[in-house]
């Protein structure tokens, strides 16, 4: 296989700081580039829908949990890996756009629910379909056997890494 951009990076570091130019850097760079490719492609689709990645995250999270499509802000923050302030800002924008509502929790006056509106359900579904389609077009460039093997290897790698790192889901 011909050298790629990551090989060039590793080689350059091999000359400058050989102790860092190894497999950990190679895996980090390749995975970052893979994530970036998916994010750029999805971002273009979300832009067409007038959504940011963070807004998409909220809408998709609420939609995937099923009816009544609602979570408490703390649960939403945890699911999205955002700060509470970041989640609050995104929710405010989605409320203004008519995609979500905030309602007091019946059982706790200090708590509230963030819930999709009918417009939010439609927008979430359109966004999920659009991003899934663009991701599928990217994956279609990879031989199916390779893509399946890569997915399984990534599962193994993530399981090993999650044991030693705080990765919230």
TrEMBL record:
Cited PROSITE patterns: HTH_MARR_2 (PS50995)
InterPro entries: HTH_MarR-typ, MarR/SlyA-like, WH-like_DNA-bd_sf, WH_DNA-bd_sf
Domain HTH marR-type intervals: 20-163
Pfam families named among the record's database cross-references: MarR_2
Example of a GO MF term: DNA-binding transcription factor activity
Gene3D superfamilies: Winged helix-like DNA-binding domain superfamily/Winged helix DNA-binding domain
GO biological process, one term: response to stress
PANTHER family the record matches: TRANSCRIPTIONAL REGULATOR, MARR FAMILY (PTHR33164), TRANSCRIPTIONAL REGULATORY PROTEIN (PTHR33164:SF104)
Protein name stated in the entry: MarR family transcriptional regulator
């Amino acid at each position: 296989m011909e050298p790629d951009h990551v090989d060039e990076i590793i080689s350059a570091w091999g000359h400058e700081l050989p102790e860092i130019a190894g497999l950990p850097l190679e895996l980090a760079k390749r995975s970052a580039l893979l994530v970036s490719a998916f994010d750029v492609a999805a971002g273009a689709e979300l832009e067409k829908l007038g959504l940011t990645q963070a807004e998409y995250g909220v809408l998709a999270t609420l939609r995937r949990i099923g009816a009544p499509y609602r979570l408490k802000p703390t649960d939403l923050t945890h699911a999205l890996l955002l700060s509470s302030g970041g989640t609050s800002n995104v929710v405010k924008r989605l409320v203004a756009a008519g995609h979500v509502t905030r309602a007091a929790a019946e059982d706790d006056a200090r708590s509230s629910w963030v819930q999709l509106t009918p417009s939010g359900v439609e927008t979430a579904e359109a966004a999920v379909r659009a991003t899934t389609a663009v991701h599928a077009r990217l994956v279609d460039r990879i031989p199916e056997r390779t893509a399946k093997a890569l997915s399984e290897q990534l599962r193994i790698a993530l399981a090993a890494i999650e044991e030693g790192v705080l990765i919230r889901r």
